[in-house]
Structures are given as structure tokens and as C-alpha cells.
């Protein structure tokens, strides 16, 4: 069971990046997926979630309206499209999986790191001002 994030990099403020979370060893269609980030010296922050079944989504206030989570089950991959990036978005970004059913769980759990079972290694996103 492995999750691999990619797509991070250096971008100027106002720019965009698309992160990918690819699964191997299991089928993502059975799992809810969360995106998290951790900036230096700060606690890990849950920023987005997508369900395994109906594709319902959830966003933290800090990214709502700028980030979009989506999934392509045929490619066994979940994406995080990040637009209008700000320097405060600089962090290591992680994806995590939780075996379903997840869509009926309390929304507070879906952006909580300990609720998830498997994690990727992270990808660095740096936004310059």
C-alpha cells in the first residue's frame, strides 16, 4: 500500500500548481482521500477531502475557493488543483487515505490527520512573494 505525491515546486504568488496523489497496491475507489500540509514550525493542517463514493468534497477555510480536489479512479489518482497561491501556502503537502465508507462520517474527522490510515511521503510547495 503506497501513496505517492508529485507536482510540487516553486511558484510565484498568484500562480498555480496541480498536485497528484497516485496509489499503488490498492484501489483508490474504495478510499476517501485527504490532503494535508505542514509548514515549518507549524502543526499539520487538513485542507481538503474527497469521498470514495459520491465525490463529495470538503475544504478548509484557508483554501476554499482557491483549491479544488478531484479524483480519476481510472488512473487511481487524486488531484489537488491550487490556484491563486499565496506565500502562506508554502508547506509540504501530503495525501492520505481512509478506507470507506467515509462520506457519512463527521466532517470534522475528514480534515483530521489521525483519522487516516496511510500517508504519502509529501511534496514541497514553495510560493515566492
Could you walk me through the main structural features you see in this protein, from its secondary elements to its overall organization?
It is a single chain. This protein is mainly β. 3% of the residues lie in helices and 49% in strands. It is built from one helix and eleven strands, in the order βββββββββαββ. It has one helix at residues 107-110, and strands at residues 2-6, 9-12, 17-24, 31-38, 45-50, 57-59, 67-72, 77-82, 91-99, 118-119, 123-128. Strands 2, 4, 5, 6, 9, 10 and 11 form a seven-stranded mixed sheet that branches. A four-stranded antiparallel sheet has the order 1-3-8-7, with no helix packed on it. It starts with a strand and ends with a strand. The model has no long low-confidence stretch (mean pLDDT 96).
Q: Into which percentage range does the β-strand content fall? A: over 45%
Q: By helix and strand content, what is the structural category?
A: mainly beta
Separate helix tally = 1
Bulk shape: globular
Residue runs with pLDDT of under 50 for 5 or more positions: none
Task: Give, in order, the helices and strands.
Answer: EEEEEEEEEHEE
What portion of residues is helical?
under 10%
| Overall mean confidence score, pLDDT | 96
Overall strand count: 11
Main pleated-sheet profile: 7 strands, mixed
Cα-based radius of gyration, to the nearest Å? 13 Å
Distance between the termini: 37 Å
Amino acid at each position: 500500500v503506497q501513496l505517492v505525491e508529485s507536482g510540487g515546486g516553486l511558484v510565484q504568488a498568484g500562480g498555480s500548481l496541480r498536485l497528484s496523489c497516485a496509489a499503488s497496491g490498492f484501489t483508490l475507489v474504495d478510499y476517501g482521500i485527504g490532503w494535508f500540509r505542514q509548514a515549518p514550525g507549524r502543526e499539520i493542517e487538513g485542507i481538503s477531502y474527497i469521498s470514495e463514493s459520491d465525490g463529495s468534497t470538503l475544504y478548509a477555510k484557508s483554501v476554499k475557493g482557491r483549491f479544488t480536489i478531484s479524483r480519476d479512479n481510472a488512473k487511481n489518482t487524486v488531484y489537488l488543483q491550487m490556484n491563486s497561491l499565496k506565500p502562506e501556502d508554502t508547506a509540504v503537502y501530503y495525501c492520505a487515505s481512509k478506507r470507506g465508507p467515509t462520506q457519512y462520517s463527521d466532517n470534522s474527522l475528514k480534515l483530521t490527520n489521525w483519522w487516516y490510515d496511510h500517508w504519502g511521503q509529501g511534496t514541497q510547495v514553495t510560493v515566492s512573494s
